[in-house]
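Co-fold these.
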Amino acid sequence: MNFTDSLANIGRQLVKSFKLLRRNTMGSVGFVIIVGVILLSFVGPYFWPAEQSANVDDINAGISLKHPLGADFQGQDNLIKVINGGRDIVTIAFVTGVTATLIAVVVGATSAFIGGRVDDFIMGLVNIWLTIPKFPLLAVLATVLKLNDVVTLSLLMALLDWPGLARQVRSQVLSLKRRDYVEAAIMLDLGTPHIVSRELLPNMMSFIAIATINTMTFAIYQQTGLVFLGIVPYSSANWGVMISAAERRGVLYNPQAMWSIVAPIGAIVLFQLGLVSFARSLDEIFNPRLRTSV
Amino acid sequence: MTTTIQTRFDLLTFWYQLKSNYLLQKIAQAIFVIWFVASVTFFVVRAMPGNAVDILIQDLTLAGVSPEDALNQASLLVGLDLNKPVYLQYTDYLINVVRGDFGNSYKSQGLKVSELIVQVLPWTLFSVGLSLIITFTLGIALGAIMAYNHDTWIDHLLSNIAATLDAVSPYLIGLLAILLIGVTWKWVPITDMRGAMSPGMQPEFSFEFIADIFIHVRVLLLVYVLSSIGSWMLQMKSSTIATLGEDYVTVARARGLPDSRILTAYVGRNATLPLFTRLAISIGFVVGGSVLLETLFTYRGVGFLLAKALSDRDYPIMQGVFLIITISVVFANLFADFVYGWLDPRIRISGGEG
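Predicted complex below.
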């Protein structure tokens, strides 16, 4: 009963959020970008499948009606490559973001609720973890473990990325626990499931969503970086692979062929900007105080 | 009898002193982190099933070397006696790390990893250190400007720029910098962007050399600053807005103190404090980015060396460089903790959880 109740509650909140989102320009632009990128990456390939052969006539072609974003060193259309190269990136972003957030919420909330020595111990470990530079560690681990598929890579990144989030979740829970309405709920003995799902989580939703989105943009950065270093193999043609393939061919210094590196960079930047502007508006959607006063 | 009680008592008081002393606590934590990272790299590179050393021995035997010779050759490369049991290798390894001996490179035979690191480390310390100082001061100044002009066009403009910079990966900013500044607009000659100094230049204490290294580092520096300044600006803005609402600021205003004094002594100092706790994450982020950016700009620093070792699968270099990077970040954090404790006496006295 409790569970269906809280599901209905979350549903009601979502409907309310969408209404508010329509009023927030930056947030709706971000939302449209995110949905657009996801649709194009997952549905687009059925309409514009990847080209298999090279077109000698169109090598490094500039912008034209035939090639809206130019063509690459094999004469393949950049726009079609961008459409076919998004699926990996979107998958990595979501799998890493959601997994890292789940671990962080469970560990952070547990640490805050139990308190005492367990809390000291967990937070001690988290603080130590935070001082280890993550990207070099990820690069070393990915080299030693020889990762080949996108999901395993995402899970490894999530395993490395959760501690910072867990620390934030913990301090959020600690500060919320001291609020009057939560103390009242504890006093009324409404039970932990009720307190967590009705009093704590709704107040942490925007915070958790923003943290997830930040982890997502960081995951995209790490993946493209690993591809650039040649650690993650070139098996599929995603945006990161497109960038480093173009970079290795010296496209940066060849203004004629520039579009084959600008197209994937543009796609990643657009997706990251969409995510971040959506995250920034979430704060206003979930936090009524910000909406009215500031 | 009495002496044992005495020593136990001393140990206990020492333990409590350690727990209550902020600086000692931080130093102990730093040593622990370094030991932890050293052990993890040892475990990953040497003790795990199918680890890098086993593969090296396998490769040597496949190439026709007898098993004993292969073991001896590998021992020489790694700098450890591989005939010993693993736990003895581990203690030898820790002793070597303390001595600064990380074994020899696989690929460039005969080169010591520690010598390679000593060659490249100054460049990274120079570029990353300088960029951290610039980013921190500039970010704090801009964040304060945003907070003082809250909800005006300056604030909106700077906030949007900061959020955009914060969103885009450092690696992409680096690519765009080469593409725009170097190739399209031709503001900076491409030869100035590659490498840490002009070819044929000798490191010496002369004006030409110093000017040359600044000319070569400027674009890299710009990319470092652009990629991490956004989050500092936004943090400083919210922190300053929170401080401006504090009672003691209102009281200071009511007392008729000059604005400049309120800005520096009352608001600035207190608003900056929370940022120090984020320094750890930020330093790690910049150093992590250096692996990609130094490779992109062929700037021969620690990150460049690590990237090369990763693509060569040169495990001794990988291990040594990763340790050096971690140790540098840990020391930078220790320094930040000291400054924090010096700026905020509450932290020093209550032992961290203030």
